[in-house]
Specification:
Chain lengths: 462, 273
């Protein structure tokens, strides 16, 4: 009632000056709005992707990609060849951020039923998460229609899901290797590593290369979760027990974590966890030329090709990964990456064509190891020849073959994958860090990981 | 002597604080002049041996960078204008008008401040999608146009203006619009400039909203745009720092020009950055 009296006393009178202010303000807003809409239209290319081709009849498929891959020449060539071969136009939905951050955005899109057709999933944990969350379209019916035998083509690399369906076709099965800086080996008078070797050999070699006065470490490893349990994976110890609970109380995981921590704090052949974190050492630190050997996946080969980003005066070599001395863990490990179709995809059939084509052909463009088991030795040699040529012969075809294919090593997944694996991985990183910086005992760390992982697995099941 | 020592220690403390504040800025400029692979080399070189200008060349020739820059600028200006209009009007209403449930509504609005932004992302996404705002700049502008924090702040400020002034104006026949435009707003200039500056800087620096709500690369804002500068398995910090150096030019210029009002506004309204 008071409000009424207020207005009664004053009334709502709009003076000429008030009108002027209002008009000027509105004009400014319209001007900026017009400018904004100009930018909205942009070059129109990505708008089409947003509309999912509703205004035209042309065949189109929309694909999430990160900026690095989207800008790469190999990606552009791959897409051009795909379009030429199939007549399907590819519209990229480029997500800002690195290979991990982009999935925060895609997660929200999935929850909100966005329609971008294709998602590339870069590791088994993501593959498991997207498949298990029901965000991907099952490919079985589409494959059955044309008698596409995925098992025959991809064999052991074809991602498996609990419901028995196929949601992802793999385009890459990266393995691990040891890259080494030949200059550091030459300066230390140490012969280049070659052929079978054990972790003890690796440590001894790294010790000979380590030179604190020159700021050189013999070894370099990163802060990925699988470094914490790499030894356990080499023994092919599962992250899950048969009853589905966490298997992290298996002694292999304890031994693996201690082994990784000791490389920095006891053996002193590489930056300790504390040093790595406090100095913010980065994933591409090996390219600085201050490390003798780098234990990493084969995707890393691309860094050596890029001499603009990483100018260097040293040559690189490659050899197979070391194994435990007891001979029971003679395995290399790696990850499978692949393509899935959004369950709300706007162009299902074309999306399926894209997934299939990329899974079969990607390796020809990016030099990554293919996930195909049906390829001949000649196909693989041709792939290695391309990599060798791109590196101006720094690494030969024979060296690549020995390091990755023609050796005595089996193959296991590098990651722990299964129910709740995303959370499981986070728990390992959080708890292991407490051990690695000396804030928690090894036994307590393992116990905490086991308990928390059990809860995460239970939550995931619910 | 004791006073001198205390003063000296205080100055030393302030100097250290100042250096701590400046270090990230120096790092940003230094990294922008290095090759991507040299940014995190230990020990860090503030002045690199070889000045690497390719980062700036890449930025200046980048297809989208200045497009993102303009997107950010127009979005921020729109947000400041709209917020300036809506928030001041709302604050005036809460400060000067009486209507049923005023306090309850105000408390309800204040309670919205307590909800963490991140927890509402998915709900907001669904709502904005329903409203057709997703992938437009309005998805940044419209939600930011109404801000409870500044309504609260300006309400307090407006309440501090003597009622005699507005009551006299009412008696003289002025309307509430007239009082708002002719009396309240001119008296609140420092507070308005403070709100404008904070709005400008917060919206200019906002990352999450454009990251989540805008999809097309050509519609992105410059903060998210930097995230397109990537290497194989991580950020291209050198290129990002070169982009960031250009990003801070506008806020620094605006702050330099309006610094006097800004400090005055903070002192009067008690905002703590």
């Amino acid at each position: 009632m008071e409000m009424q009296s207020d207005f009664d006393s004053g009334g709502v009178k709009v003076t000429i000056q008030t009108k002027k202010y209002t008009i000027v303000l509105l004009m400014m807003m319209m001007l900026l709005s017009a400018c904004g809409s100009k930018s909205d239209s942009g070059d129109g290319k990505t708008d089409e992707a947003q509309n999912n081709g509703s205004a035209s009849k042309e065949r189109v498929v929309t694909v999430y990609e990160d900026a690095k891959r989207a800008e790469s020449e190999e990606m552009k060539k791959k897409i051009a060849d795909f379009t030429k071969e199939t007549g399907i136009k590819v519209e990229l939905n480029i997500v800002p951020g690195d290979g991990v951050e982009i999935y925060k955005k895609i997660d929200v899109d999935m929850i909100s039923n966005e329609k971008t057709d294709i998602i590339r999933l870069t590791n088994p944990i993501l593959i498991d998460k997207y498949g298990s969350n029901g965000w991907l379209y099952p490919l079985d019916e589409l494959m059955a229609k044309e008698n596409y035998d995925a098992t025959k083509i991809y064999g052991k690399y074809l991602p498996k899901f609990q419901d028995g369906k196929t949601y992802v076709l793999p385009d890459q099965a990266g393995k691990w290797a040891v890259y080494y800086n030949k200059k550091i080996f030459d300066d230390a008078g140490v012969p280049y590593p070659s052929g079978e070797w054990t972790w003890d050999d690796y440590i001894e070699t790294a010790k000979k290369l380590t030179n604190p006065a020159k700021g050189i470490y013999g070894s370099y490893m990163l802060d990925y979760d699988n470094y914490m349990y790499m030894l356990a994976r080499q023994y092919d110890v599962s992250g899950y027990k048969e009853d589905g609970t966490s298997n992290y109380d298996d002694p292999a995981f304890k031994k693996a974590l201690q082994f990784f921590g000791d490389l920095g704090t006891v053996q002193k052949i590489q930056p300790s966890w504390l040093e790595f974190k406090s100095k913010k050492l980065s994933w591409d630190g090996f390219m600085s030329g201050d490390y003798g050997m780098h234990f990493i996946g084969t995707w890393y080969t691309n860094q050596f090709k890029d001499k603009t980003t990483y100018p260097r005066d040293w040559k690189v070599g490659i050899t197979q990964i070391p194994v435990p001395a007891d001979g029971k863990g003679n395995n290399n490990f790696g990850i499978v990456a692949g393509y899935g179709i959004n369950k709300n995809a706007a162009h299902l059939d074309d999306a399926y064509t894209y997934v299939k084509w990329m899974a079969e052909n990607s390796y020809k463009y990016n030099g990554n190891l293919p996930a195909r088991v049906d390829l001949s030795d000649e196909d693989i040699k041709a792939l290695f020849q391309k990599t060798s040529d791109d590196l101006s012969g720094e690494i030969t075809v024979e060296e690549l073959d020995k390091a990755l294919i023609s050796n005595n090593l089996g193959f296991v997944d590098e990651k722990i994958t299964g129910p709740g694996s995303t959370e499981y991985s986070n728990i390992i990183l959080q708890e292991a860090e407490l051990y690695l910086v000396g804030q928690k005992s090894l036994d307590d760390t393992i116990k905490s990981i086991k308990e928390r992982a059990d809860r995460a697995i239970k939550d995931a099941a619910q | 002597m004791g006073t001198l020592l205390r003063k000296g220690l205080f100055n030393l403390f302030m100097l250290i604080l100042g250096v701590i504040m400046v270090v990230p800025f120096v790092f940003m400029i230094s990294a922008s002049l290095k090759a991507p692979g040299e940014v995190f080399v230990n020990p860090m070189q503030i002045i690199p041996d070889k000045i690497y200008t390719l980062n700036y060349e890449t930025i200046f020739h980048h297809k989208y960078y200045f497009h993102w820059y303009w997107n950010s600028f127009s979005t921020v200006v729109m947000t400041v204008l709209l917020r300036g209009l809506l928030v001041t009007m709302a604050a005036y209403a809460f400060a000067r008008l009486s209507f049923p449930g005023k306090n309850a509504i105000f408390l309800f609005l204040l309670s919205a401040m307590m909800i963490p932004h991140d927890t509402t992302i998915v709900a907001k996404f669904m709502l904005y999608k329903y409203m057709g705002l997703i992938n437009t700049h309005w998805v940044i502008i419209l939600p930011a146009a109404f801000d409870v924090f500044f309504i609260f702040l300006l309400r307090q400020f407006f309440m501090g203006i003597p009622k005699d002034l507005t009551e006299s104006a009412l008696i003289d026949g002025a309307s509430h619009f007239g009082i708002y435009f002719r009396i309240i707003l001119p008296l609140a200039v420092p507070a308005l400039i403070t709100m404008g500056l904070f709005t400008f800087i917060w919206t200019w620096n906002d990352f999450i909203s454009p990251f989540i709500f805008i999809n097309d690369i050509n519609k992105q804002l410059v903060t998210v745009g930097l995230e397109y500068f990537q290497l194989e398995a991580g950020k291209n910090y050198a290129l990002q720092m070169a982009g960031a150096c250009l990003i801070v030019v506008i806020p620094i210029t605006i702050f330099a020009v309006l610094q006097k009002y800004f400090v005055q506004g903070i002192a009067m309204s008690g905002i703590k950055g």
